[in-house]
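Please complete every field before forwarding. Incomplete forms are returned to the sender.

SECTION A: IDENTIFIERS
Entry label: holo-71
Bound molecule: zinc ion
Molecule representation: SMILES string

SECTION B: INPUTS
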Amino acid sequence: MCGRPFPEGQGIVVQYGDLKLEFHSSKCASKFFKSLLERVEPRVLSPYIKRLVEEYTEVVESKARKRIKVI
Ligand SMILES: [Zn+2]
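SECTION C: PREDICTED COMPLEX
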């Protein structure tokens, strides 16, 4: 998106519908998605974000449980 070229297989490529977004680095991608979040109305994305946060929390917690079992 910033126009900086990157070798095939590197960088981050996101296919979203018929849009292909290419970022030369994860920093570049997070900058883009941060401004996207700032532009989309919170009520539109909030349910999806909450759901994702829950899923991430579950993964972290199940990893923590496994660690305890090993000990
Ligand atoms: Zn870039």
